[in-house]
Amino acid sequence: MSLSSNIEKLIYECGQLKQTERVVVICDPKTKNIAIDIVNRIENNNNSHCNLLEENIKIHGQEPTNKTAKAMLDADLIFGITSFSMAHTLARKCATDRGARYLSLPDYTLDVINSHAFEADFFQINTLCEKVCKSLSNKKTITVESKSGTFITLNIDGRSWNNASGLLLSAGSLGSPPDSEINIAPIESDTNGIIIVDGSIPIPEIGLLKSKEILTVQSGIVSADNGVFSGLLNKIFGNNIKNRIVGEFGIGFNEHAKLCGRMLEDEGSFGTCHFGIGSNSTIGGLNYADMHIDFVIKNPVISADGNVVFNNRKWLI
């Protein structure tokens, strides 16, 4: 697919933009050119009003300014194209609670928008995501194992799965195409085990991993003590214990996406899962933190209430 057709797919298929809708596009200096392209395409083809705003978001999960948060409340469709994600912010949650559809597009570049991951049939993926969410609903525990050594159990009792297939089909929906995933916020104090991160840590300082990072988790709290990037991760986590809580478990569904060190392809890559450390208050959890960082592992074996539901890149439901 061409760059032009991928942008059209982003706006009209994934974003489901309709005539006369109010659109807010939020960018930073690094992503402004793509943001301007999106605004121009919308204003040339739709009777829609676009409000282009610039922010300086420095870490995933940082709140935008009050001006931007207020503009988001009045929007029908929001493009969050800042280099760092605002998906896990109260500003985003307040906007989607009021019915805005939110395209979370952190670190968008020409490489992302021109990726083969956009060849995915998002409607077909959405159908599978719905099926898996339904099958996993009302489960109490998730266990993840891998040949690399991951063995971790998450308590999800009473929490709901979120379908983030990449399509915004209803008011208040959230998507991050080409990322296609489902995710859930586990009980914050009841995740235990070890995570051997062998895929990526999709932040600018790290990306694809050449060696494994080891995270130990006790009562939901992450320790990073044995890896090349342990020092950096501990610096990022800082002294706020909430930044170390396992806040999310997600599973990728896009077979066209490949691990590359970029968040929206890595998290959605089929045959991977990821653990989000930090804030989860916007996806059904109770942890209000300063940040949210994802850790991607390859080829997981996933069990629900003791029964294997995903193995060898196949769903067993």
Task: Walk me through what this model shows.
It is a single chain. The protein has about 325 residues and is of the alpha+beta class. It has helices at about 5-15, 30-45, 65-75, 90-95, 110-115, 120-135, 230-235, 265; strands at about 20-25, 50-55, 75-80, 100-105, 140-145, 150-155, 160-165, 175, 180-185, 190-195, 200, 205-210, 215-220, 220-225, 245-250, 270-280, 290-300, 300-305, 305-310, 315. An eight-stranded antiparallel sheet has the order 14-13-10-6-5-18-19-20. A five-stranded parallel sheet has the order 2-1-3-4-8, sandwiched between helices. Strands 7-9-15-16-17 form a five-stranded antiparallel sheet, with helices on one face. The chain is globular and about 50 Å long.
Topology:
Layout: H1 3-14, E1 22-27, H2 32-45, E2 49-54, H3 66-73, E3 77-81, H4 90-97, E4 101-104, H5 110-113, H6 122-136, E5 141-145, E6 151-155, E7 162-164, E8 174-175, E9 181-184, E10 191-197, E11 200-201, E12 207-208, E13 213-218, E14 221-226, H7 230-237, E15 246-252, H8 263-266, E16 272-278, E17 292-298, E18 301-304, E19 307-311, E20 314-315
Parallel strand pairs: 1-2, 1-3, 3-4, 4-8
Antiparallel strand pairs: 5-6, 5-18, 6-10, 7-9, 9-15, 10-13, 11-12, 13-14, 15-16, 16-17, 18-19, 19-20
